[in-house]
Amino acid sequence: MPAASDLMRRLAARGALADPAWQAAFAEVPREVFVPYYYVTVSGGRRERLWRDDPDPERRARWLSGVYDDQPLATRVRDGELLSSSSQPSLMARMLEALEVRDGMRVLEIGTGSGYNAALLAHRLGGARVTTVDLDPGITGTAREHLAAAGYRPRIVTGDGVLGAPAYAPYDRVIATCAVRAVPPAWLAQSVPGALVLAPVGTGLVPLRVEGPRDGEGRFLSTPAHFVPLRGGAPQGEEVHPVPSACAVPPHALRQGSFHFLLGLAGGSLAPYDAYELWRDAGRPERERYGVTVRDGLQWAWLDDPYGPHTWSLGGPLEGGA
Ligand SMILES: C[S@@+](CC[C@H](N)C(=O)[O-])C[C@H]1O[C@@H](n2cnc3c(N)ncnc32)[C@H](O)[C@@H]1O
Q1: Which pLDDT tens digit goes with each residue over 57-77?
Q2: Is residue 175 lining ligand 1, measured as CB closer than 6 Å?
């Protein structure tokens, strides 16, 4: 029977998990407790539910083997829209390692979802040092039950993660597992100087080193990340629209992840063809050449140099509500 230790060994073999403390967390936290059912897409784009208590033993076996595969699992879907999922374990492992936690640190997670990532954090740091927030009381209620069943007791807050969780601040680390257009100011304001805020911005992951309540900076990791977007809350900047096929961007560029990354980051302020010219002339830059800076509450993304020439505003001091 597949088990957590098999998943841990697979993640380590793939190079996604090297730290022994995180290896122990992945080997010992049972993901199956957090995903008693999930949806898989089958032929014709239909969604099928696999669940722990299925009367058919073959389907129960499929459920369990999927739990310990390195794949994201869709756990909540409404009107065809994916609302919540348990993220891909190798992506979670890379994020947790990039978070550079040490014993005694206090961590805020935005996007409780299934509660599995909060359990990994609680295994590593102790439940009293972990706070996790989700928008939806149905999601936090279920996550609380699963966390308790697995023996973990992080603080679970139902609310808009854009506002952080001021009641338990300050934090040494903030990790978001839903995608944002810009890093909400509250995440920096509720962190200590020197903290790291790891946020999925567009289709990348940026660790911001916090310099003060309204200041921070970081460069994107090479890891691509496709998270459920943050819902509701304060304005998150302009929506990025898919590139219309009729526009003059050459089709080969549209097939490149690095071009889509730039569109996701600068799509609100750059027309697709201008983005294409920049991408071409800059030598098709990969994610690590981009970064995000927050100075005195103003926030922008940049290519190569925070002070230009290629910078794009991600939000003013009022956006996101500090
Ligand atoms: C990919 S899932 C999180 C996965 C989770 N960390 C886990 O281990 O299962 C993203 C979650 O973000 C939540 N979310 C979306 N918008 C939010 C918001 N404004 N505040 C807090 N959570 C939000 C969704 O409800 C969803 O549960």
Answers
A1: 999 999 999 999 999 999 998
A2: no
